[in-house]
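Two quick folds needed for the group meeting slides. Do the first one here.
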Amino acid sequence: MIVVMKSGATQQQIDHVIERIEELGLRSHVIVGTDRTVVAALGEKRDGAKQALETGEGVEKVMPILAPYKMASTEVKKERTRVQSLNLEVGGNRIGVIAGPCSVESRDQIMDIAYVVKEAGATGLRGGAFKPRTSPYSFQGMKDKGLKLLAEAREVTGLSVVTEVMAADQLDLVVEYADVLQVGARNMQNYPLLEAVGESGKPILLKRGPSATMDEFLLAAEYILKTGNTQVMLCERGIRTFEDHTRFTLPLATVPYLHQTTHLPVVVDPSHGTGKASLVATMARASVAAGADGLIVEVHPDPEKALSDGFQALTPSGFRQMMVECRKVAAALGRDL
């Protein structure tokens, strides 16, 4: 349930409500809005809890949270969440763009692409140091060397480094170098990992699993949010369907639906969502038109020689053109990119 405090409620009154919530065996989470403060009471239902809380001084009303995802729901927080990391902003009026190769392959490769995407207007640099691959014989990433190269690229460009964490035992190493932690589609329901990345305090980019429903996706985000980390971005990267003309099916109705049900910002990945470089720019434009708060796009200096996912990576010139086109769509909607 949520305890809505009266406008002008004092900190002492808020603290008293928090104390009462914890006395009832529930966990409190404070959300400070522009007009009033809301205190969420999380945990299993307790008989009499609503009545016990609504009599508190400074309390306006106590309301049950109907959605199964409590902290992610707009019932708890009406205002849109903005996630910020260095110059990367996702969730405000500006559409954040994260771009770079699927995997870090060499110093020259990542440095070249970092300069390209920065010049074109991206504010985040993506690149896998640890790569989850379907085949155990495929390139698995440069691991710690890749992380160091990403950090070096950040130093010279100012781009926020976004990279994937595959397991909890990698977390300390990745946190040392990354600005945003990505949880990949394969790990969307790896609940111990979700809790671990949440406790890191870093912004999180959570990718939807290819067979996950919206409720499953939002409940996965809930595992991160319940640690107290509110800096969570939801990433639609395509789902599995009967279609085979694209790698996945990219359902852009996800964007407005999530905006109706959650306060968390929504990022779209048109690279994985289509699996074909020729379709990426078009779907990026469509994502912006649908209201996406951010894009994450694969870019490689020479896609034909890429060690992973070259078939869906844009060339530098293709990325520049995509950015020009997406800016026009964003401007028509009164947004910046």
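Then this one, please, same format:
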Amino acid sequence: MTSVTVRVPAKINLQLAVGPLRADGYHGLVTVFHAISLFDEVTVAAATADSVTVAGEGADHVPADGDNLALRAVRALREAIVARDGAAPDAGPDGRAGVAVSIRKRIPVAGGLAGGSADAAAALVACNDLWQAELSASELCEVAARVGSDVAFAVLGGTAVGRGRGEQLTSALVAPASYHWVLAFADGHLSTPAVYGTLDRLRGGEAVGEPELSADLMSALRAGDAPRLGAALSNDLQAPALAMFPALRKTLAAGREFGALGALVSGSGPTCFFLARDERHATDLAVALSSAGVCRTVATATGAAAGATVINR
């Protein structure tokens, strides 16, 4: 085996509750991750040295050097294998010790959908397979947590509750329902650290309690009740995202006007997502949003989707 290809999903946050700023510079979170059927594909091939190439949606904005999250994931996995086995992964008979990572993107960059984290998760799963390292999903998630806050969830997929920085995951107890989502991609980007900084300024030093999981949201998920789910969506980063990107107000308002069961900024934005009643409504809603001129482009997706999955060896 000389290469492995992995498909990995984007995420939306059905809830994102942000606590006070911690001493380590992060905020404590309680979030409900939901993987959706918008995928990147990552291929990892044996090579003389580590490298990365990126094509597709927003490729010009993705680092193609050692700062790339996928390459960080490769290094982190290699270090974990050395710590476990006392030696680096088998370089093979030709001595090729590196990997060439090829990323084909459909998940927008800096869109609040954790595309970079998804690519890192895909690289972990692909290298684990390529190197026949046989790390379990939980072991991969431990490595993922060292790479980035959202990486572990992209390994697992589905619907899960995240705590800490989002890396402490527990699977959510949910009904076997399929939800139909419409994504409105903005013409621009938002920096996650900048959005958190704006949130702190908007809070103005007021006392902020520790974040809590929404009972209404979890009850809706357990029941598979789409209208209740739409009403329970929440995101503490929506206000700062709207302050930094006011055009998103029109996008959210348009989605509600066209009958969305729920409308929310995804993560730190600027992507907005909408819950539709069913597949036909999702198609109609996507057409209406596109025609209204309130976003760069739209896509439909379903959830919950599987996490990073090997699709070709």
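Slide caption for protein two: The two ends are 7 Å apart (CA to CA).
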